Amino acid sequence: MLALDATDEVVEAAAEQGADLLLTHHPLIFSARKQINDGDFIGRRLVKLLANDICCYAMHTNFDVLSMASAAAEQIGLSDCRVLDVTWQEGEQKAGIGRVGNLPGKVPLDEFGCRLKELFGLERVAIFGQRDKEISCVAICPGSGKSVIGKAASAGAEVLVTGDIGHHEGIDALAMGLCIIDAGHYGLEQIFLPYMETFLRQTWADLTILRAKEENPFHIV
Predict the structure, then answer these.
(1) Cβ pair 212, 3 in contact under 8 A
(2) Residue 32 contacts by C-beta under 8 Å, 6 or more apart in sequence?
(3) How far apart are CA 156 and CA 67, in angstroms?
(4) Residue 96 contacts residue 84 (beta carbons within 8 Å)
(5) What pLDDT is stored for residue 215 in this prediction?
(6) Each residue of 167-206: pLDDT tens digit?
(7) Tell me, what's the pLDDT at 193?
(8) Parallel/antiparallel/unpaired status of strands 126-128 and 134-144
């Protein structure tokens, strides 16, 4: 079963449908645990997985480095892409978080934001920057991109597409000459599901693949 997060509902669905492996993007465990019991929500999920003999594998940073930003950049239509935040290099080969690339031509910032809403099926995006500013060089970092704002500005990007940007990060980015489009943490990382489903089906044709029913964890009113 594929899911973005191993929530109670996802773990329950995996058990009910007899999954052998729960493959997620985000880890179930983010910090060390000294015991496993049903005394809290993480322990409750672990107990459920163990009781139903379900393995759980979270790809998270591995997928972020190798595929997440590349897949998002391809969906947007960026060309001449390069790594935004290099975490590994051997000779000319580089890998890391995020990508920087070029649009086919210049487009107003607000128009680009509307295009992103359509491409990723988003309810809304938050935009820091002048509505009519013409942009063509785009940095993208699905998930939380606060830490790469400086790198995006240094790379010559005119806009950073990411998530989890607060008020102060947004205005600081503008001071660096960088616009921001906050598409939400879930909004961009949801591409993990179709990407992995396609990969698994192409690699193991006889594998039964289930996708958990998921949606944005919050709604706009």
Answers:
(1) yes
(2) none
(3) 22
(4) yes
(5) 81
(6) 999 999 999 999 999 999 999 999 999 999 999 999 999 9
(7) 96
(8) unpaired
Provide the token pair at 126: 């938050």
For each of the domains in the chain, give its residue range(s) and CATH number, in order of start. Answer: 2-58+191-203 (3.40.1390.30), 61-189 (3.40.1390.30)
pLDDT tens digits, 63-99: 999 999 999 999 999 999 999 999 999 999 999 999 9
What does the pLDDT look like over 106-160, one tens digit per residue? 999 999 999 999 999 999 999 999 999 999 999 999 999 999 999 999 999 999 9
The residues that bridge with 210 in the sheet, in sequence order, are none
CB atoms within 10 A of CB 46: 20
Helix, coil or strand: residue 87: strand
Question: What span, in angstroms and rounded, lies between the C-alpha atoms of 52 and 121?
Answer: 34
119-157 burial code (b ≥16 CB/10 A, e <16): ebebeebebbbeeebebbbbbbbbbebbebbebbbebeb
d(CA 179, CA 42): 37
Tell me, what amino acid is at 202?
Q
pLDDT over 90 for what percent of the chain? 94
Q: What is the largest CA-CA distance in the chain?
A: 56
Phi/psi of residue 146, nearest 5 degrees? -55, -40
> Is pTM, for the whole model, over 0.85?
yes
Q: Which of 76, 66, 58 is nearest to 7 (CA)?
A: 58
